[in-house]
Amino acid sequence: MKLLSKILILILLGISPTLVLGNNQKRALIIAIGRYKEGTGWGELASLSDLVLMKETLRKQGFLEANILTITDANATKAGIRAKIEELIRLAQSGDKIVIHFSGHGQQISDLSGDETADGLDETIVPYDAPSNVKDPSYHGEKHILDDEINGWVNQLKIKVGANGHVLLLLDSCHSGTASRGPSSSGVSRGDKPALIFNKVIVKKTPTNPNTSDFIETISTNKPVGGFGKFVLFSGASAAQVNKQIVLDNGSQIGSLTYAVAVAFEKMPKDASYQALFAKVLDVMHDKVSGQTPTIEGDKGYQIFNGEYVAQEPYFSVKRFLENGKQIIKVMSGNLANIHEGAKFNFLPIGSQSSSSTKALARGKVVTANAFESIIELEEGKLPERDTEIWGFQTEQSFGKYKVAVKFGEFLDEKLKTGLIDTLKSRNAIEFNDKLPDLEISQENENINIILVSSQEIYAKVGIGVYDKKNLTDRILDYGRAKILSSIEMDNPDYKAEITMKPAKLIQDANGRYSPVILQDTINTFPVFDTSQQGWITIKNTGEKSFYFTLLDIQPNGEIMVLYPNEKKGYTFEDVFIDAGKQKSFPISEITPPYGVEKFKLIMSGNKDNFSFLEIRNRETVAKDTSRSRGETNPLETLVKDFTDGSMSRTMSRGTGTPSIPTMGGTASFTFKIAPAKN
User: Which of 173, 332, 366, 421 could link 106 by a cystine bridge, Cβ 3.0 to 4.6 Å?
Assistant: First the structure.
């Protein structure tokens, strides 16, 4: 309940954002506790995997190995963590950019200082040897690290780094005392124990704010002579939620916030703000963990590391080895960096700005990939003798595993279940997977429910008649097409954009043009719009090149609409052209059902003809489309069409089962939830 509210006064005392950078350093501390002391009652976590990923993410942002402090497991007691924090504070200098990352359990405990006026509970992070329950009546939180103490450390760092410095705190833990909500396909919960309530402590019933981490409260501090550094907090879940790990395709797990931050850094454009980084975190976490909303607090409008974000095209370090006489390249990144089987790579000398900046030394194709690394078989060219002289650049992406995974739940009629299995079995676009399903099919009286496993929400209901088998199949394929278009990520340093939608009251003039009165200017948590509201979409070109764009609306029921360009509403491709550095805005005159999580997907290209296939987005129009031969279609169009009829005949006949997508442009997303109007 403290850290940011305590820092809100400090924010008000901050200085102008027009800053001059000095000779500063980027420093970090990563605290990762995966295995807690026996007897504490805490479960094992994937925090050491978080450490590996976060360290690599920071390294790509210019953090030197020598400037990244770490502490893990048995060393990460309260005293051990405090010593590392104090070391970081001693090392910090004016203008430094500081990142502190914590992966472990979180818990609420009784407030003994009397400053928790809302609910009488302190938020804590849980060190290695802190107990999960009170067995010893003399224990009053001595081994937990309270938000009060974290707040003090952050304030010291803000003073040390001064007005030109930044402090970014990432908490991949749970701050809630809410008990675990049971087994989840999204993985283990990080903080699934009830709050520690000590004897004779009265816990107030006032609920915490669901849109904050509750690590914030007001503090009275005199402004230092040099001014305070900028401070931003990302937490993995709001105060009333547990924080879950993500289950990756290979069955391993990783922290949801750590994963999302790593992916977001891979996608950020030049000079992006912390708010823009957080918007991407929201988007990634929606796709991976349902019902969990991360929060952002602090100086979120400032540029990441004050504009020092590394804008170079992403590259990957490599290692080589021989296998059966063939030269094999190992790239030290994998699915987390959107590298999948079938992707293509160019290898260039270190220091190359992009894959096209110099002539490629060699080319290859990904043959296997997991979360953290990819194996590439060299197809042509020759590499230098030392691995340290090579950088790898992904030149062509692949969708990897894109089939819809289905499992069957309870059925009253086993013959009906058998018949449905036989029907779906004939569709190559659908696979049966009981361990990591996308959808669960079950019977409820006279209906068949299609349930989204990630959220346990009903995606669709169909009847049980013989003609409803096609309806069931079609709805599953609708989900598949929406899943593919939603997951498209095209990385191109030339084509970058930020997309936002804000609640607004629209005013229409005599010529029919809209202007907005913005009702909420910032996004602190997962955006929710109800059906009584209107919206104002803004698309900003943050890349190096001008582009045309199309904006897709991927609805909760799997329907896909092209919002812009929309000639019926008077928007042509001339209206969706944005020069580099410019922006355009569009009205959303009404928010309508279906309820649930919705995504706007922006696809950019320098050639508007690349978008013509998106008009062929409904099953009926796909079946009738004979306007172009197969040779004129691009791979993305082919994939969408194949998924519509469920055959996968064209893509599967190529022998790879993994259609690759050339980086013809770029993508951006905005994810939000539609709720019923408030009474």
Answer: 173
Q: How far is the C-alpha of 133 from the C-alpha of 129, rounded, in Å?
A: 12
CA distance linking residue 357 with residue 355, whole number of Å: 6
Kindly state the average pLDDT of the residues 402-426.
89
Residue 246's nearest CA partner among 235, 234, 237, 259 is: 259
Tell me what pLDDT residue 640 has.
Answer: 66
First to last CA, the chain: 30
> Is the model's pLDDT at 520 over the cut of 50?
yes
282 near 222, Cβ under 8 Å? no
Which residues does 129 contact at the CB level (< 8 Å), separation at least 6? 36, 37, 40, 77, 78, 143
> Which residue stretches of 488-574 are H helix?
none
Question: What is the distance between the alpha carbons of residues 184 and 177, in angstroms, rounded to a whole number?
Answer: 18
Residue located via tokens 């009629």? 413
Flag the least confident range among 177-191, 413-427, 601-615, 637-651. 177-191
pLDDT at position 278 over 80: yes
Q: Burial of 117 by CB count in 10 Å (0-12 exposed, 13-18 middle, 19+ buried)? A: exposed
Encoded tokens for 284: 């990634």
> What integer best gives the mean pLDDT of the chain?
78
Report yes or no on whether pTM surpasses 0.85: no
Give yes or no for a contact between 231 and 295, defined as CB atoms under 8 angstroms apart: no
Strand ordering across the sheet containing 447-452: 430-432, 404-408, 439-444, 447-452, 457-463
What pLDDT score does 588 carry?
Answer: 92
Give residue 349's pLDDT: 83
Cα–Cα dist 167/161, whole Å = 8
Cβ–Cβ < 8 Å for 13, 226: no
Among 50, 33, 31, smallest CA distance to 99 is for: 31
| Half-sphere exposure in the Cβ direction for 646 (13 Å, CA) | 19
Q: Is the pLDDT of residue 189 over 90?
A: no
- The CB density around residue 644, as the number of other CB atoms within 10 Å, is 23
Residues 318 and 393: beta-carbon distance below 8 Å: no
Mean pLDDT of 642-652: 59
Neighbouring C-beta atoms of residue 207, cutoff 10 Å: 10
3-state secondary structure of 568: helix
